[in-house]
């Protein structure tokens, strides 16, 4: 990401001249007060937003030179976890988790064991046929994580994943991310929780007033 | 991954069927549910207009055919002679006609028919004073075509003052009427197509707006436009097929009330109607789907 600027109509300069580089295989926190632009930064990364200025490279390719289908392909190599889970209400947990396989044209039937295994891994093995409304917040968040990683993403983006679950579950979620990170996935977690930052020794990007205010523990 | 405790609790995975829920659900979206109804109404109108136009064009064509197939010859009466075959002018005219290639049945109208024709042309006030001409009705074979100009000079030689009416004025009138009917019909149908296009685009567009959240998740999950588009296009297509199909039936029934001839001569009328209906129905479905698709794509490109 090189000198990227984002101007929302009502809030110009949410992100101002931000340059950063996330090496493959790294684990990084994005932090800053509420409204600092953490979500916006993640949006840039999953190509959900076009910056007003600057360049963004993802997987070695210039993001804004890509066609819409190429962007879709890039997104198929990303996993995103939202604070509000964003599960699809009318689908079972199994189908929610299998969704990225389905929409990227993979044969969901042949991946059945893998989906089920992943559900057990996040502790939802017995909820495959449940609808999202039957699950607690922590369970929904774990389903969202399973969905985010089903396509074995190279880059996992999590926006306040611990925001809607209690602390104990929040810790477990970060441990899940660590496991994935050890398997080679680059992880970016946006959070405003200082306790998380203190607990884990990973580098943190601090956003404030649209700029990278502090680069803690040196992000390369 | 922590599979050990997972294995113990594992449920037979085979019980899980591959996802059968559609990516998008349109149930409960009022406008979307109304789409087949609206398209049906529009289709019944379009099919009705199209069949009305077909009927009018067909009837005009029949009249043109009649006008084409017939010549009327007026032979002025020789003073003093009753207008019958005893009149030498009539005899000579008949000879001339019989020696002309391309003519079919030749018939001298009787007094009563003659009077009716002349009255129709001139009004009954005049007929009392004017001696009735002899009118010869001639069937014209389709081919070879008769040289009307040549026939005129020949007849004039045989029976001076004879007039040949080849219905040219009537034919021109009918042909003009044909253009008018066609224009009117196409205009009405075009209007319906415009309404269908706008309705379909708006309704499906609204449905896109209602499902932004799901669309967002699909994009995040790596879905290309094609996958998301196909959900909406599929819905528009299903709505259009159901709506337009039923609408077509209604339009046809409506037209049958206007033109009961369909029940008397189905083998004549149906071959006219069926291609028109197929054309209108397929165009309507196409317009509905293409408009919906265009609007969805426009919205998708704007939102993500
Ligand atoms: N789509 C948008 N249009 C306009 N303003 C926005 C939009 N999204 C976010 N903002 C504004 O940008 C600022 C940063 O938002 P966000 O990136 O969500 O911050 P954070 O995630 O750090 O809380 C907020 O003030 C928010 O109101
Ligand atoms: Mg946020």
Structure description:
The complex is a heterodimer of chains A (220) and B (304). By secondary structure, chain A is α/β, with parallel strands linked by helices. Chain A is built from seven helices and eleven strands. In chain A, the strands form three sheets. Chain A has a six-stranded mixed sheet with strand order 7-8-9-3-10-11, with helices on both faces. A three-stranded antiparallel sheet of chain A has the order 2-1-4, with no helix packed on it. Chain A has a two-stranded antiparallel sheet with strand order 5-6. In chain A, a hairpin with a 2-residue loop joins strand 10 and strand 11. Chain A starts with a strand and ends with a strand. Chain B has a four-stranded antiparallel sheet. The longest helix of chain B is centred in the middle third of the chain and has 43 residues. Chain B has eleven helices and four strands. Helix content of chain B is 69%, strand content 7%. Chain B is rod-shaped, with a radius of gyration of 34 Å. The N terminus of chain B is likely disordered. Chains A and B meet through helix 2, helix 3 and helix 4 of A and helix 1, helix 8 and helix 9 of B. Bound molecules: adenosine-5'-diphosphate (ADP) and magnesium ion (MG). Adenosine-5'-diphosphate binds next to helix 1 of chain A.
